[in-house]
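Slide 14.
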Amino acid sequence: MTELLPPKTETSVELVTELRRIDMLDLCDATEAAILDGGGFGWVSPPDRDVMERYWGGVLAVPERVLFIGRLDGIVAGSVQLMRPTRNNEAQSFACTLTTSFVAPWARGHGLARLLTQAVIDHGRKEGFQLLNLDVRDTQHAAIRLYERMGFVRWGTHPHYARARGRSIAGHFYYKVLQEEGVQDTPQAGA
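Slide 15: predicted structure.
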């Protein structure tokens, strides 16, 4: 008797500078699924498709944003962004931000969130950033576990970080040192 094994799932992450039409459609589908599941990086209800497409097109047009997409068996299943500080923000030019991270519910459990997060860490280091910041809703338990396992340090909690479906949701703030050089352990008051 021959045992049939399930097919191996292929995951990948790529930096995106333009989206093919099929990728835009897949990205919008994955975004909508994540929003409906409660992980829509700010959206509580999915916007109209044209609004979502304009949002993703806008992400690619903003020089401070770097978009990564995650694929499961070739289909766009999630994304994350690295946000650089604006050029006039010299005081925080050493730090970047991981933002708008999600994986569609149907693609979870294959390590895509970890791969997407690692892509931002690696890119931040490559660009010379010393610190990576992020914030996450308290309801995103899997994301919180992932970030803490990957060495992010929780430095604060805001009890009224977000509001969804008529209730306040706490949010947590994290950072990860990307390069020790130049990062002080104790912030200087008034600096």
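Speaker note: The CA atoms of residues 13 and 70 lie 4 Å apart.
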